Amino acid sequence: MIHFFKKPVSHLALPEKFTYPFHYTPHPLCVLAAEEVKEYIASRKEWQEELASGKMFGVLIVQTDNGITNNEENQIGYLAAFSGNLDGKNLHPYFVPPVYDLLQPEGFFKIEEEQISAINIRIRELENSSSYLDSKEKWKIETEQAKAVLNQAKAELKMAKEAREIRRQSSPELSGEEQASLIRESQYQKAEYKRLEKKWKKRLEELEMEVRHFDIEIERLKTERKERSAALQRKLFEQFRMLNAQGEVKDLYTIFEQTVQKVPPAGAGECALPKLLQYAYLHQLKPLAMAEFWWGDSPKNEIRHHGYYYPSCKGKCEPILQHMLQGLEVDENPLLNPVHEEEELEIVFEDEWLLVVNKPAGMLSVPGKAEDRDSVYHRLKKKYPEATGPMIVHRLDMATSGLLLVAKTKEVHQDLQAQFANRSIKKRYVAVLDGIVLSERTGSTGRIELPLCLNPLDRPRQMVSSEHGKEAITEYQIISESERITSESENTFNESNRIDESERSINESRKYTRIIFYPLTGRTHQLRVHAAHPEGLKCPILGDELYGKKADRLYLHAEYIEFRHPIYGDILCIQKEADFHKNMIKP
Fold this sequence. Notes:
Helices cover 36% and strands 19% of the residues. With 587 residues, the chain is an alpha+beta fold. The strands form 5 sheets. Strands 8, 9, 10, 11, 12, 15, 17, 18 and 19 form a 9-stranded mixed β-sheet that branches. A 5-stranded antiparallel β-sheet has the order 1-3-2-6-7, sandwiched between helices. Helix 4 (130-170) packs antiparallel against helix 5. The longest helix is centred in the middle third of the chain and has 64 residues, at 176-239. The chain is extended, with a radius of gyration of 34 Å. The two termini are 47 Å apart. Mean pLDDT is 88; it is low at 67-73 and 487-509.
């Protein structure tokens, strides 16, 4: 199952620590391994139709000291895996096996799945049976008919009552016999209405019982299905006994007991990296580095690009990997390292009521859960200890640079937030896209409307969802195209994108688009998703690690903001050009 590289790799230094799986740049060994896996995938023509819809693959660089080949020690090779199943199977010779093969024909999962499928078929048969549908329709029709008949009878009762009142008032000298006759008439008509009402009630109850006969059986089957599914899921997750580097074993239910959701989500344990680590531990292979890449088209709601590397998903994999990586020396999360600690925060505008700062890329707007992390709020709270209220009026992503509006008092903060709420504040962002926007040209303008919400299984990524997403609107204008970017950190940029050079077969050549964004709403990651999504510009922002590829930074900058001063009423227009604004070189 272990693969050894086709090309010599002795010149490549081994990683000092294992990859932090949720934020990484693939090690050169992982890039070489992934390229060999991609060649193998491309050679399997029978998979191409299925893979066109997209699948995640993974590689794990491993070290063995058992002299597998040429009696040499400390051999370096790699393992390969795919997420989920492939071609209707979990087992393929080139890839590591699953932690537990739920597709075994004689296994409990397939047997119980067939039972649940039979229940589903029976439910559909009942729900679509002519007897059930006819009974429901008849009950509906006669319910409406009863309503109409009884309403008419009520109206006639009312009219008769009014006629009696008129007669009493017009003939005050009615005899006792005549008065008694009017009373008997009223009593008779009320009794007739009660008999009519009782008749219809009995009829509708009979029809309802016919329908309820089916409903009760359908509900019983659904309850049985739910109970069987829950029991099957629990039994299944108990089979996923995950190892770690210390030899400890925990099943998925035990692992997820400590999480907010308590129960493992569907598909937990079937992603590529858990499979790879499990196989390595079982066969005494030392994990050195990992990488996961996408093959095929992007899913409808999420954003994936063919051949791009992606971090492990957090919803399914983070709790599992927290256990499985114990015993390995793992890289630190690079996002926790302050990169601007020694730099002074640039203030672009300030008066006694508010200020506008130029937030650098890589700094948080607010500290979030880790209160001691460096952030704009943290800096300004120290600088202005007398300030009241939340101060930060709006936020920029950690990776985004640009203008951030800050209030010194609670009242000013409330006023500015109200301006954001009614969309009277105008913002403009400049960005560089990692590619050329198809069918667009320099000077082109457009509008993107894709509703967004958090992807609960892959935080902090956002996803497009017409069902759960909130309205998100972006207008844009394409400024220019280029085949090169220069910057003061060009060497850093080239180094961080060394993986791109090995992907030229996928991406042809590196071209860029400079673009202006005008967000009309302020959703999380709005510009990044609207740029990268297939139904948006289908061209991620350069350096977008979540929806595209890593570079020396995210090439997105909030360069302009316009708002009404809460105290003076003047319209303020603040602008700060991006550092990369002038570095686009036209072809």
